[in-house]
Amino acid sequence: MIPVDVHSPASSPTVVHVPLGERAYDILIGRGALAASTERIAALGARSAMIVSDGHVLPRHGEALEAVLAQAGLRVATITVPPGEGSKNYAELERVSNALLDAKIERRDLVVALGGGVVGDLAGFAAAILRRGVRFVQVPTSLLAQVDSSVGGKTGINAPAGKNLIGAFHQPALVVADTALLDTLPERELRAGYAEIVKYGLIDDRAFFEWCEANAARVFAGGPERDHAVAVSCRAKAAVVVEDEREEGRRQLLNLGHTFAHALERIVAYDGARLVHGEAVAIGLVLAYRFSAQLGLCPGQDAERVRRHVAGLGLPSSLAEVPGGFGSPEAILDAMAQDKKVKAGRLTFILARGIGESFVQDDVAADDVLAFLRQAAAEAVPA
Amino acid sequence: MIPVDVHSPASSPTVVHVPLGERAYDILIGRGALAASTERIAALGARSAMIVSDGHVLPRHGEALEAVLAQAGLRVATITVPPGEGSKNYAELERVSNALLDAKIERRDLVVALGGGVVGDLAGFAAAILRRGVRFVQVPTSLLAQVDSSVGGKTGINAPAGKNLIGAFHQPALVVADTALLDTLPERELRAGYAEIVKYGLIDDRAFFEWCEANAARVFAGGPERDHAVAVSCRAKAAVVVEDEREEGRRQLLNLGHTFAHALERIVAYDGARLVHGEAVAIGLVLAYRFSAQLGLCPGQDAERVRRHVAGLGLPSSLAEVPGGFGSPEAILDAMAQDKKVKAGRLTFILARGIGESFVQDDVAADDVLAFLRQAAAEAVPA
């Protein structure tokens, strides 16, 4: 029995409901949401839980989570994976799934992901395929995971051919986004996660983008603005996921900036020391707007406004800022062609007619992309 | 381009429709069904297909399948896995999924499983998790796969803790059960597959059981009775799957005989030289009826009639016939306790009130099981 030592919540968490029929679930958001989640977890009616975490996160937040699970009446076991994207592979998946079997986790039991996107994707995928599907709970500990990867049911691992190419749609039974867990995050990681927040404004909510311009500093500082930004993001993502759970249409909007971002991540060989996902997304958002402007779809001042906000936060906003270099325009295009969003050989981009007015364009000519990349690359060379 | 050299069908295949909403699909059954499937496959609208097969099956049937796929306008690639249950592991899954990525199989393309249950389970699982789900087509080449594993969407691999513990529900887009492909099967494999056919009569169709008693020899010989038996089996399985796709209730009836069978397979360490799955099911069906009789649920003469039919076909029907021995009653109970159908520590059995009258009993006392096994084991010791 673990001693109970959880912080009392500052206030009741915000609840975002994701109405997916028999796969519906709630997201609890706010400072102290973890300690406030005991009853919710108990109500799931499981007997056992296995925490999947990593060696960085578990020492910080493991005890608090174990206490909540024990208070909810669950038998608790724990496994950790090495921190970092490298753990999203078959070997770790096999190790985690065997540990879940050894812990006798059954269909109604819980796999609890405590960590960032890597842990959530890997643990969620292990839950999806264990006994053809056991329930899982996300306790995201990075800003990126709180506003993006822990909502929507995408789980998976990487392949030599690309990121997230192996996986499953598996919705969580509950998400607990305790914004106080972000207080100990390194500044760089917070900033990177913020890129996904501003994305929701750019997709279809101009007012939220303007709110971001005014309040970004307070989101970083951890005031109620942080809770608000997380809640708006989760609500926005949930709305899209409910419309298109399996990404056959509208859900693709969530990939705004990501075709560029994935290509850049591939080019730096997923080396987080050079570029973490959120930083690649920051550059990708700016490029998506600039590309839209170049195609005559979007006013140039909107693209410039996006660049200014991103750059003003200390996030990279151009190809020139890829540490170690971005290769060549051709290398970026090649990397794009390997992305899983390629359909029948054509390139799909999320483009925009303005801030908050994004749309899916599934037939973009490779020549147009290359011409834009060449221009963006030329600017990157110091005069 | 592969030369077209497919046999013309003897007659139009029987079509069994599996009405699972947006996951609905057809099963084409009969002699020549493969050659007759070109239009159906073309109608799926894929661009590419990758055949997953094994080194035994591909030389026999690979060319015919390639010809059909090419005629349907598809680009075709092929990968083989080593024959046998040992291929249902993470290493082969990784190898197959990487090959699918290298062949640029996209979401609307086809993974085509050509083989028995092992190939179908592995290829189907690879299809389920590739890009979070690409379509797949089953071309089962064993009787067992035609009447059981290729219908219903269960896919997966084995774990050290047990068979099929890792997997996904992933319905095929089409199943082509060409009964002529069974002509070259070894006698033992045909017999083993037959156990799953007779199971459908025992579950809820007494008239079909009586038909089996009268027609088993003709099913083996390959006449129209074989097509009929496969069609009745697929229809029966489809009806159950439609009612309960994710095995939360009625679908468990398909496990008649399987709690015993899985335990025996575990005890022989899944050594097919000793006991293949269908043989274990044959023993399991007889034991399920005898256990039901011992519990006073089922007339003893029904249990004896089941035993007589199974034994009369040359299938094993008692613990004494497990080659190399069955261990002990306690070992069998232990092996059962590891089965994935254990819920909250209780044993679930499919029992029967008579031939064609099976039901799910999810609260069977371990003591009753042990007492029955001891009796069945005592008989097994030569006097």
From TrEMBL, chains A, B:
PANTHER family, alphabetized: 3-DEHYDROQUINATE SYNTHASE (PTHR43622), 3-DEHYDROQUINATE SYNTHASE, CHLOROPLASTIC (PTHR43622:SF7)
Keywords: Amino-acid biosynthesis, Aromatic amino acid biosynthesis, Cobalt, Cytoplasm, Lyase, Metal-binding, NAD, Nucleotide-binding, Zinc
Family (UniProt): Belongs to the sugar phosphate cyclases superfamily. Dehydroquinate synthase family.
Function: Catalyzes the conversion of 3-deoxy-D-arabino-heptulosonate 7-phosphate (DAHP) to dehydroquinate (DHQ).
Start and end residues of each 3-dehydroquinate synthase C-terminal domain: 193-342
Protein's gene: aroB
This protein's pathway: Metabolic intermediate biosynthesis; chorismate biosynthesis; chorismate from D-erythrose 4-phosphate and phosphoenolpyruvate: step 2/7
Cofactor(s) this protein requires: Co(2+); Zn(2+); NAD(+)
Enzyme class: lyase
Catalyzed reaction equations: 7-phospho-2-dehydro-3-deoxy-D-arabino-heptonate = 3-dehydroquinate + phosphate
Protein name per the record: 3-dehydroquinate synthase
Gene Ontology CC: cytoplasm
InterPro entries assigned: Dehydroquinate_synthase, DHQ_synth_AroB, DHQ_synth_fam, DHQS/DOIS_N, DHQS_C
Compartment list: Cytoplasm
